[in-house]
Give the backbone structure.
Amino acid sequence: MLDAANPIPMMTINGCIIVAIRDDLDDQEIVSLQDRLVEEVAKRNAHGVVIDISSLEIVDTFAGRMLAAMAQMARVMNARTIVVGMRPAVAMTLVELGMTLDGVETALNADRAINAIVSDRSNKL
Amino acid sequence: MTDEAARVTLKTSGDVAFARQAAAKAMAAIGASTIKSTKFVTAVSEIARNAVIYGRGGVISFSEAGAAGQKRVVAVCTDRGPGIDDIDRAVSDGFSTGKSLGLGLGGAKRLVDRFEITSSSKQGTKVTLECGPR
Ligand SMILES: Nc1ncnc2c1ncn2[C@@H]1O[C@H](COP(=O)(O)OP(=O)(O)O)[C@@H](O)[C@H]1O
Ligand SMILES: [Mg+2]
């Protein structure tokens, strides 16, 4: 069941946390997702985070700032964040908003993102 | 002629999400393209959030304007908040009294076909957003 405190399923594969964001989260749900994700990175000692936003019909300045902040916090904890599945219309709209999503890496799909994170990891080991 | 199609009371961040849904529905009703709808819904999200955060809550209403075959969606968001002292400064990118990005008003303006804002300390703030289907 989805409930307010735990709205989004997260799973960890190969040290990589995967989250698929459900459409139309409100601002408070986005903030609690951010908190949970940071906790999860610490708890699982994850080295990567993949955030799938393919179901998001829009990303406004609040959601965009939260994505950037999640990536930044994960980086502080030594995890690399990749956002996947951004819709073309969302990408165009972010440009017009003037949002650059600094430091947010993107990839076409989750497969590629996980591969990038895993191979990056094995290079470092 | 305009016929009000929907009205959303804005008090919480959940209401902002309802406003987005109403905006998407209104754009679908005029057969808008994906990109136009995405832009308009994003603009509505910014303006509705401002009404909640800075305007002490408000109301946003959606209606259609224009003749059959060239209908446009008009959203009017009003609040009874403290108003905006310097509108030009508020609309310029990067200005925020809320420690956020300051891209909401300027961004919303760029995303729609018509943007109007009036504000006073007595009457609060009123933002009009209008968008056609393509
Ligand atoms: N409805 C409103 N009532 C009062 N002030 C507002 C309203 N909307 C915007 N403002 C003012 O304009 C500024 C810029 O708004 P915006 O561009 O959305 O950026 P942000 O929301 O990041 O602050 C806000 O910080 C606030 O001071
Ligand atoms: Mg704003």
Q: What stands out?
A: Residues B 46, 50-51, 54-55, 79, 81-84, 90, 95-98, 100-106, 125 surround adenosine-5'-diphosphate (ligand 1) (CB under 6 Å). Residues 14 and 49 of chain B are 10 Å apart (CA to CA).
